[in-house]
């Protein structure tokens, strides 16, 4: 019995046969291999010609003849018809590229590592863990394939400024310039803001002068607004006037934010005539009209001073100006009523918010918790906190500061400890206000040993003590007649001020 095997050895080869004008002819070669049992196999090659079907000419006058070697392919939308390895003459389709898989694996592993560490950096920045964020950033910088961008430096500068680390922010800024990242006016403003947050006015003006000397980093309205705020907070109104003059010389028009800052400063300093002058100027201006922030500034000013009637009067005036309140506006009213223990009005505002579909925010609950915390009403404070959690509202540092102070005022010091533990469980950022609340609770409980431990932990966490920290501790030691401790604290405070001025 014979077995036949049919192989397609070539395709579409040019034919030597004569071709008709309207036909194309090609030849196909078949190799038929015949095998008999016990005999040698023999093969014969047959060549036959066939004619391809006649195609209708296109609408053009002369039909275009396509070469038999041309191979058409309909590419999908978005694809690029690149040349495959097999289509290049002399190159085999199966030729491997050496170490391609290893290179791709290494690249993917490096990319995965960078993505993981970058996420860790973003997480540290979001949680305001500035020291850990710098450590992760240093890890990334050591990798040759990582190039930090302007946005990363901006986030770190803002974080260091908010964390009271202006000199570390300046070190990071210098490091950025040394590594070839061009500074911008936005980055300089972020560095200036870091000094402003620590009330270092002289250093802030030094940054401003440096910006003036650089053509591509000229100060703008945001730079001047940041400087004006720190001068207003320090009641350095003569510097505010000089900054306004500089803005006028540079043709920089103050915006509503700038005017709101000055408005708030005059109000806090009790300069109501100047405050009214600025407000009237805003009402007459076409470029910086009063907005809801102006409204909030005035209401917050009178609310913090306990002048409820003036607050309510200005609320009506702003409504007559056509300015609509927002959630923060109602939170200011709730906080002001709570401090004056006007719980009926506080509840009325909260119900009004619900009626107008304004959501209760973390600040809303914080104001209510703070109202009960100030009077040591632990029961209503806990009820508000439980309702806050049941609605899925996330607590923040102020929430736990109010809880700790409230339990301390109520004499429930065991609940102070549980609140601190709960804050750690929720990963609440521990800032100066948080430690001050715990230190104050320890002082009320006359547990000076625990107060010392909290103070040590505060410094170990690189959280800067402030005047409130030292005054609370000094008063606690004075009650016990511990003059040596008072002397040590006063010396430490002086050294801290000296180190800050030196940039340590």
From TrEMBL:
<feature type="compositionally biased region" description="Low complexity">
    <location>
        <begin position="1"/>
        <end position="14"/>
    </location>
</feature>
<feature type="repeat" description="PPR">
    <location>
        <begin position="255"/>
        <end position="290"/>
    </location>
</feature>
<comment type="similarity">
    <text>Belongs to the PPR family. P subfamily.</text>
</comment>
<keyword id="KW-0677">Repeat</keyword>
<feature type="region of interest" description="Disordered">
    <location>
        <begin position="1"/>
        <end position="26"/>
    </location>
</feature>
<dbReference type="InterPro" id="IPR002885">
    <property type="entry name" value="PPR_rpt"/>
</dbReference>
<feature type="region of interest" description="Disordered">
    <location>
        <begin position="77"/>
        <end position="105"/>
    </location>
</feature>
<dbReference type="InterPro" id="IPR011990">
    <property type="entry name" value="TPR-like_helical_dom_sf"/>
</dbReference>
<dbReference type="InterPro" id="IPR044179">
    <property type="entry name" value="PPR5-like"/>
</dbReference>
<feature type="repeat" description="PPR">
    <location>
        <begin position="184"/>
        <end position="218"/>
    </location>
</feature>
<feature type="repeat" description="PPR">
    <location>
        <begin position="361"/>
        <end position="395"/>
    </location>
</feature>
<feature type="repeat" description="PPR">
    <location>
        <begin position="220"/>
        <end position="254"/>
    </location>
</feature>
<dbReference type="Pfam" id="PF01535">
    <property type="entry name" value="PPR"/>
</dbReference>
<feature type="repeat" description="PPR">
    <location>
        <begin position="291"/>
        <end position="325"/>
    </location>
</feature>
<feature type="repeat" description="PPR">
    <location>
        <begin position="431"/>
        <end position="465"/>
    </location>
</feature>
<protein>
    <recommendedName>
        <fullName>Pentatricopeptide repeat-containing protein</fullName>
    </recommendedName>
</protein>
<dbReference type="Pfam" id="PF13041">
    <property type="entry name" value="PPR_2"/>
</dbReference>
<dbReference type="GO" id="GO:0003729">
    <property type="term" value="F:mRNA binding"/>
</dbReference>
<feature type="repeat" description="PPR">
    <location>
        <begin position="149"/>
        <end position="183"/>
    </location>
</feature>
């Amino acid at each position: 019995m014979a077995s036949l095997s049919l192989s397609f050895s070539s395709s579409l080869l040019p034919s030597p046969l004569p071709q008709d004008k309207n036909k194309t002819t090609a030849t196909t070669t078949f190799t038929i291999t015949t095998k008999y049992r016990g005999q040698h196999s023999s093969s014969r090659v047959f060549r036959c010609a066939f004619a391809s079907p006649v195609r209708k000419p296109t609408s053009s006058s002369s039909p275009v003849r396509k070469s038999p070697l041309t191979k058409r392919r309909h590419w999908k939308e978005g694809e690029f018809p690149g040349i495959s390895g097999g289509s290049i003459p002399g190159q085999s389709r199966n030729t491997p590229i050496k170490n391609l898989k290893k290179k791709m694996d290494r690249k993917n592993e490096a990319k995965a590592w960078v993505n993981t560490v970058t996420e860790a950096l973003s997480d540290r920045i979001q949680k305001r863990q500035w020291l850990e964020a710098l450590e992760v950033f240093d890890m990334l910088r050591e990798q040759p394939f990582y190039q930090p961008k302007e946005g990363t430096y901006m986030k770190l500068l803002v974080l260091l400024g908010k964390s009271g680390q202006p000199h570390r922010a300046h070190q990071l800024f210098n490091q950025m310039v040394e590594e070839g990242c061009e500074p911008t006016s936005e980055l300089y403003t972020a560095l200036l803001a870091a000094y402003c947050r620590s009330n270092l006015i002289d250093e802030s003006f030094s940054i401003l002068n440096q910006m003036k000397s650089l053509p591509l980093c000229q100060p703008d309205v945001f730079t001047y607004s940041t400087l004006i705020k720190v001068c207003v907070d320090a009641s350095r109104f003569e510097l505010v006037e000089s900054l306004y003059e500089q803005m006028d010389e540079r043709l920089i028009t103050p915006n509503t934010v700038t005017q709101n800052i000055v408005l708030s400063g005059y109000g806090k300093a009790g300069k109501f005539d100047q405050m009214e002058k600025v407000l009237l100027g805003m009402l007459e201006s076409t470029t910086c009209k009063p907005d809801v922030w102006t409204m909030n500034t005035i209401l917050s000013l009178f609310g913090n001073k306990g002048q409820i009637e003036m607050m309510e009067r200005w609320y009506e005036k702003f409504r007559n100006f056509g300015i609509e309140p927002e959630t923060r506006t109602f939170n200011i009213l709730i906080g002001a009523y709570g401090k004056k223990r006007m719980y009926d009005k506080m509840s009325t505002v909260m119900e009004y918010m619900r009626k107008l579909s304004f959501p209760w925010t973390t600040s809303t609950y914080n104001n209510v918790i703070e109202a009960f915390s100030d009077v040591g009403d632990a029961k209503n404070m806990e009820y508000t906190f439980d309702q806050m959690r049941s609605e899925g509202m996330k607590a923040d540092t102020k929430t736990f500061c109010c809880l700790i102070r409230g339990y301390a005022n109520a004499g429930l010091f065991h609940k102070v400890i549980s609140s601190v533990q709960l804050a750690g469980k929720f990963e609440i950022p521990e800032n100066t206000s948080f430690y001050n609340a715990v230190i104050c609770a320890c002082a009320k409980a006359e547990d000076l040993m625990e107060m010392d431990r909290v103070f040590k932990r505060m410094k170990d966490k690189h959280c800067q003590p402030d005047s409130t920290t030292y005054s609370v501790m000094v008063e606690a030691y004075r009650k016990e007649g511990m003059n040596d401790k008072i002397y040590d604290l006063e010396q430490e405070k002086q050294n801290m001020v000296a180190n800050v001025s030196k940039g340590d």
